[in-house]
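re: that chain from earlier
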Amino acid sequence: MGGGDGEREGERRGSAAGDCSETGRRGYIIKGDGGGGDDDGDKSLFFPSSSSLKTGNRRGGCEVDCGICHSDLYSIKNEWGHSTYPMPMVPGYEIVGVVTEVGSKVTKFKVGDKVGVGCMVGACLSCESCSDDLENYCSKMILTYNMAYHDGTTTCGGYSDIMVASERFVVRIPDSLPLDGAAPLLCAGITVYSPLKYFGCTKPGMHLGIVGLVGLGHVAVKFVKAFGLQVTLICTSPSKKKEAIEILGADSFLLSPDPEQMQAARGTLDGIIDTVSAIHPIPPLLDLLKPNGKLILLGVPNEPHQQPAPPLIMGRKTLAGSVIGGMKETQEMLDFASFVWI
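^ sequence. v structure.
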């Protein structure tokens, strides 16, 4: 997972959200009101070099940079089976930049502001989830790329040179966060921050485990330490130990293929954040939890996990999952990260 270093191969500008024809700079246009699909006329923006600039309603444009996420690779290869064809697909949802223009009814941002767009660009804005600032769980949530927008066009992601989005789905990047450092937080950051908060894994004195040290795992270790908790990195590779402890600040390292280490650590953890996106045994991780402990899955393997009931029942343990967070929580996460400099 990178931050702010997306490649720019070929210059494109889309004349609609899904139009990626070779006509200039890459980009896309989002239509609708506030990201909820209530479009009362042509209120789109073309940024920043279009000769047919139109002032929009709750729209903003920015010159962008974009990180790369493992999910982008899954989508490009269609390993999850949901990629839209025919191509081209424009991935990327760790998008950061500086606002170049704003729509006439934009109130939250102004030209020159440092901003970001993460994994989603739209939702219904009328369901219970949206009302609770959990747009990420809206049944009509619209991903930043490779998904139909309200007007039927296909959304294109951050490997565009320009970006247009509803202010509802834009976050402010705090001045103390560099753009390249903030970009991964719009995916990995909120993906680990949200379950830590929701499942009560930020209480003083807790001891948490983090499974995996690629992308999500890096950020998870840093957030757990920022909350002042004890953290053990659980990994299959002994080569990760030095990085986990000396660079990221983990308190201890647990080599999961080592049965003696796993046995010694049984019942020592209050919670585990599992970031691994490949199939791996779940029962040994549940054994590491104290009674009432929580194992939270963030990775998305290509095949389903196999999990018997007894390890959950014995100890009243919880096996749960989580995906990103709502816009309000994403802004909260960025503000917290800037305070502790994740």
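The radius of gyration is 21 Å.
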